[in-house]
């Protein structure tokens, strides 16, 4: 074999070297991510169920699950509850509160930042179910908050019954704000202090420094954090289910709760998978919106 042929064979083998290194990752993605999505997509067009006549024989029913889903008034309520929970706890709550905490900690001493950071991180590192039980004890009829109100001579409130959506929003804010705080803290530390000092010397107020220098400088970080927090909040299940179970009534039934009830309480897995795809589509749309806004 000539030297040219040997070199050509060697280059050909070298061109496929990347595949050997990436094959384990590709295989894992196919088995644990792509395949479940395709299987879920297929089951959403079937009558898959755990009990009853439908459980005996799997049948392809076309768009029946989707037609039923868009006609079901409970789905509309769940979508609305999901958007309220998403906007209140992610967009307004975690994003804004995390930014404010990070901004207040900017230029503070390291000891102060460690103490405040540890307090805020306590809610984030706490498992979701433990966090739900703690907040349930706080907002319960005989919980900590009502005990404080009674001590102050204020009328007690049945928080989990009167304002259940507010309670789960506050619980999720307490649980997830630390992530936004850490992201913004790292971004704010990268803002050149010389620019801020020059703006102050030129007569800029604190609000002008914040709105015209700091926020524009970290706008990409704000958008990225918003996308991550939104997708994380969109799939919150354990916190809501442990605190309210989606009630009272369906006042806190978000799409993950509704999907769980249809799939594992009513045993209609086909209908439940159709709802899960609706949740997936909402996440994709929001992600595309954030990615487009970054450009």
From TrEMBL:
A family per Pfam: BPD_transp_1
ABC transmembrane type-1 domain mapped to chain residues: 80-290
Membrane-spanning residues: 21-45, 79-104, 116-139, 159-184, 222-243, 269-291
Gene3D superfamilies in the cross-refs: MalF N-terminal region-like, MetI-like
Subcellular location: Cell membrane
Keyword set, alphabetical order: Cell membrane, Membrane, Sugar transport, Transmembrane, Transmembrane helix, Transport
Keyword Cell wall biogenesis/degradation part of the UniProt annotation: no
InterPro entries hit by this protein: MalF_N, MetI-like, MetI-like_sf
Record's bilayer topology term: Multi-pass membrane protein
Family that this chain belongs to: Belongs to the binding-protein-dependent transport system permease family.
Protein name per its UniProtKB record: Multiple sugar transport system permease protein
């Amino acid at each position: 074999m000539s030297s040219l042929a040997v070199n050509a064979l060697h280059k050909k083998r070298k061109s496929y070297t990347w595949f050997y290194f990436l094959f384990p990752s590709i295989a894992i993605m196919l088995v644990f991510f792509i395949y479940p999505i395709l299987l879920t997509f297929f089951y959403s067009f079937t009558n898959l169920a755990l009990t009853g006549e439908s459980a005996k024989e799997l049948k392809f029913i076309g768009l029946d699950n989707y037609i039923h889903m868009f006609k079901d008034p409970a789905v509309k309520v769940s979508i609305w509850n999901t958007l309220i929970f998403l906007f209140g706890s992610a967009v307004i709550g975690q994003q804004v509160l995390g930014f404010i905490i990070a901004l207040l900690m900017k230029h503070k001493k390291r000891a102060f930042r460690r103490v405040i950071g540890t307090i805020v991180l306590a809610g984030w590192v706490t498992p979701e179910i433990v966090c739900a039980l703690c907040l349930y004890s706080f907002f319960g009829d005989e919980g900590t908050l009502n005990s404080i109100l009674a001590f102050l001579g204020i009328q007690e409130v049945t928080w989990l019954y009167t304002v259940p959506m507010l309670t789960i929003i506050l619980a999720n804010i307490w649980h997830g704000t630390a992530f936004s705080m850490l992201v913004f803290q790292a971004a704010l530390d990268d803002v050149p202090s010389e620019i801020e000092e020059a703006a102050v010397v030129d007569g800029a107020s604190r609000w002008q420094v914040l709105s015209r220098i700091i926020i524009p400088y970290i706008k990409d970080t704000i958008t990225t954090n918003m996308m991550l927090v939104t997708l994380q909040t969109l799939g919150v299940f354990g916190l809501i289910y442990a605190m309210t179970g989606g009630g009272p009534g369906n006042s806190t039934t978000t799409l993950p709760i509704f999907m769980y009830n249809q799939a594992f309480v009513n045993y209609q897995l086909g209908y439940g998978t159709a709802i899960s795809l609706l949740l997936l589509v909402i996440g994709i749309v929001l992600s595309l919106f954030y990615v487009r806004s970054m450009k």
